[in-house]
Structures are given as structure tokens and as C-alpha cells.
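Ticket #4471: structure export looks truncated?
Reporter: QA, pipeline team
Priority: medium

Steps to reproduce: submit the single chain below to the structure queue and open the exported record.
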Amino acid sequence: MNVIDKLIEHFRRFPGIGPRQAKRFVYSLLTSTDAYRKELSALILELKNDIAVCQSCFRFFAVNGNGKNLCAICADPNRDKETLLIVMRDVDLENIEKSHVYRGKYFVLGGGVPILAENPEKNVRTKDLLEIIKKMSALKEIVMAMSLTAEGENTEEYLRSILSPLSSERKIKLSTLGRGLSTGTELEYSDSDTLKNAFKNRS
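Actual output as written to the record:
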């Protein structure tokens, strides 16, 4: 396998990227300048040095050098501590935050639970989620904001099964996004008005 084929295989690992798109990426790099390729390589190598994982919501965030292990959202004392929104991926959090329809806390699962997964806890941050919830003494509602896909619905079902005992014990409401999202919709691509309606009609 030559370098072009190897790069195509690497690009195909990116979410939503098929073989044709991966091949276009490689040929685009071949026609770019040496300076561009060097800068891209350097940025990829620096990624882990400049990016950290928030110890509260578990999203990736740019390290600002102040020594804190919290992202700007979790470090904000004005966020609503009575609600926790659970999303599958960082891009879902970013899209919801950009819409300005939610002002509570977040938790990023780090993925979804595939249908027929034998060990669901290995696919998402179950242990971390439960630990965070236990620390949130003022928590009154947990919103499971999953994409309306087969994986999203399966993930929501799994979350409900592990959160129900804690919800009953502490009288925490478990809710899901309501009408406004169409079946098959990824949260990553939902516009602000759609998200606003989904939050308004959550149940």
C-alpha cells in the first residue's frame, strides 16, 4: 500500500467521510503548497499539547494556560446548576451552545451505544457521568439530548436504565428533547429555531 492509499484509509476513519471524499482530501493535499502541508502537520502534532478534556463536562477545550482543568462553560458561575444536558459528542454541545437556548450544565458521553452492543458501558462515559451527577447537589433535571437516529434512541434507552434509580432516589426529572426534531436528525446539524422548539417541548 503506497502513501496515497494509506492517507485515504486514514481519512476514511473520520466520521461521515466515504472513500470518494477521502480520496479528494488526499489529492487536494497533493496540489497544495509545502508550507500548507507543513503547517497542517504541525497543527496535528500540537493538538494534544494545546487541547485538554474538561474534568466536569468532558468536552475538549483549548488550554488557556491558567492551570484550570475546566472549560469556560463549566467554570462560569452563572450557569444553571439545576439542569444537566447529556449529549453524545462535542459537536452536539457546540451546536446547542451556539443556539443560546440552554444555560445549564453539560456532559459529553464521548459517543453513542450501538444497537446490540454487548458492553454499553465501554462505548460511553457511564462511570464519569454517575460521579458528576452525584456531585451536583442542586440538580433537578437531566435532559437526554440524543440525535433521533437508531444509535441515539438506543443510547437514550441505555441512559434511562442506568439513571432511573438515581432519578427516583433524588427526585430528579429525566426528560428528552421534544417535537421540533425530525426522525433521523443529528443534533450537530440542527438549526437554532429547531433546537429552541425541541427544548420548549421537552418531556
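Status: closed, not a bug. The export was complete when the record was re-opened. Leaving a note from the reviewer for reference: The longest helix spans residues 150-170.
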